[in-house]
Write a structure and sequence with these properties.
It is a single chain. This protein has a domain at 18-233. The protein has twelve helices and four strands, in the order αααααβββααααβααα. The radius of gyration is 20 Å and the shape is globular. Strand 2 (143-146) and strand 3 (149-152) form a beta hairpin. By secondary structure, it is mainly α. Helix 3 packs antiparallel against helix 4 (74-97).
Length: 311
């Protein structure tokens, strides 16, 4: 028995350190980091955990599938994806988030649950349980050989996109007036309003930026998972939310690191586990989450200080 366990552990470690698995895990971590930024940004400004974030990604993915069905150019499909996600984000902020901003966190949390199930039900009625398939960007799923490794194009695109988006966001928050207002609102929203910070503008910009990131994630995930169903991105959103908590929700940097870490761990376990045991991946992943929270309930990176405080 011990020999069998030792052999299994040795195979697992060998697969985990394989460069191919490492690259794929970093690519998945980059996508999860983008999702964590969108979730963490809204939480930082509005103190709201947006459980409907996955349904925004789903809506963008259905927009891509809709464009693919009609043989539209890939660029037009991406533009439609961004338009749909940003329109839904703006409607969500105006109709739900803004009126409920002064209510308790529990009220806003239940509201996001209601939005999530509403959007999921609409998708189910409109597209059916089998959903649609998006193939316009399928060429990005093909590998290219770099240094003896077959790396999928989407992995490279995901890593580069994550780095660029995070750099632009840091620049926005640290070098612009609206970024200053967002940081001030995150630290103390009431005092910020007394000092002239426009709460409505800050809320709208935060939600729209999070929506743009959701649209980017929709494009990246649709390449890897071309079949879009009403539950598209639901599991990924739950995993990222766990990662945000593991990293530390009080700061955007720690939330982003938590999202990347859980994405990297998910990719690593998915690549190292035998295919016959892949169904146990969520169990392993959330088991690790529980262990981390028992040791560091405030988050692994809760004391990380970057250029941006709180947000």
């Amino acid at each position: 028995m011990s020999v069998f366990l030792a052999s299994g552990l040795s195979d697992f470690v060998s697969d985990a350190v394989d460069p191919q698995v490492q690259v794929d895990a970093i690519g998945l971590g980059a996508i999860y980091a983008l999702m964590a930024v969108g979730i963490g940004l809204v939480f930082g400004v509005l103190r709201l955990v947006n459980f409907a974030y996955g349904q925004l990604i789903m809506a963008g993915a259905f927009a891509l599938a809709f464009a693919s069905d009609r043989d539209w150019p890939a660029g037009l499909g991406i533009a439609l994806c961004f338009a749909v996600v940003l329109a839904l984000s703006l409607a969500m902020e105006r109709v739900v988030f803004r009126p409920l901003r002064t209510q308790s966190a529990a009220v806003m949390l239940i509201a996001t649950f209601a939005i999530a199930f509403l959007l999921q039900s609409i998708a189910l009625l409109w597209f059916g349980p089998l959903g649609k398939t998006a193939t316009s960007l399928a060429q990005l799923n093909r590998p290219v050989e770099i240094g003896g490794l077959d790396i999928r194009k989407i992995t490279i695109v995901a890593i580069v996109t994550a780095v660029v988006c995070l750099a632009l966001l840091v620049a926005l928050l640290s070098r612009t007036s609206i970024g200053l207002h967002m940081r001030a609102a995150a630290i103390d929203s009431q005092t910020a309003r007394m000092l002239g910070v426009r709460a409505n503008a800050v809320s709208t910009v935060s939600v729209l930026i999070a929506g743009m990131l959701a649209a980017v994630v929709a494009v990246l995930l649709t390449v890897q998972i071309p079949t879009v169903t009403p539950t598209f991105a639901l599991q990924e959103t739950i995993i990222v939310l766990a990662g945000v908590v593991v990293g530390g929700m009080t700061r955007l940097v720690s939330a982003t690191l938590g999202g990347f870490l859980i994405g990297y761990a998910s990719g690593l376990l998915g690549g190292a586990l035998p295919s016959s045991q892949s169904q146990y991946l969520p169990s392993f992943l959330f088991g690790l989450v529980i262990l981390v929270l028992l040791v560091r309930p405030d988050g692994l990176f809760s004391r990380t200080r970057g250029l941006v405080e709180r947000v």
